[in-house]
From TrEMBL:
MF GO annotations: DNA-binding transcription factor activity
One Gene Ontology cellular component annotation held by this UniProt entry: cytosol
A Pfam family that the UniProt record links to this protein: Rrf2
InterPro entries linked to this entry: Tscrpt_reg_Rrf2, WH-like_DNA-bd_sf, WH_DNA-bd_sf
Protein's recorded name: Rrf2 family transcriptional regulator
Length: 145
């Protein structure tokens, strides 16, 4: 449902947030390795996320990528998806047809309407903090399974 860049981006933000909680800044190589993504591709994704202020980057020997703790509770998953995939995930045809719409629906159009609505609610209803903590308990992620 998401593009590869969006999948890598979501995983990268989760990894960066986990490291930020313990006051670690992480470099490009560590992020790419953690999310199992090519380094050059990861760099482009991180550039988009930095440009839109979802994550922060500091250059230099003590630099790296991090996420400010205040942002953990504010950044919704939908914001990350919007930056990396746009709104097509909510509006595009489930079969990828360009001519599919309410007036000229594909065979799956009406079924995808509900799926897209549920997806949008889930992405807008969850922040990075929600992924890191459930009921106040820290979750440990499994990014590299």
């Amino acid at each position: 449902m998401f593009s590869k860049s969006c999948e890598y981006g979501l995983r990268a933000v989760i990894f960066i947030a986990e490291q930020s909680v313990i006051n670690n800044k992480v470099g490009l190589k560590a992020i790419a390795e953690a999310v199992d993504s090519p380094e050059a591709f990861t760099a482009k994704i991180l550039q988009q996320l930095t440009r839109t202020n979802i994550i922060t980057s500091i250059k230099g020997p003590y630099g790296g990528f991090f996420m400010e703790k205040e942002k953990l509770e504010k950044v919704k998953l939908s914001e990350i998806v919007s930056v990396l995939d746009g709104d097509n995930v909510y509006t595009g045809c489930g079969l990828g047809l360009s001519q599919c719409d309410a007036k000229n629906p594909c065979p799956l159009h009406h079924k995808f309407v509900e799926i897209r609505r549920n997806l949008k609610e889930m992405l807008e209803g969850n922040t990075i903090y929600d992924l890191l903590y459930s009921n106040g308990v820290e979750n440990k992620f499994w990014l590299k399974r």
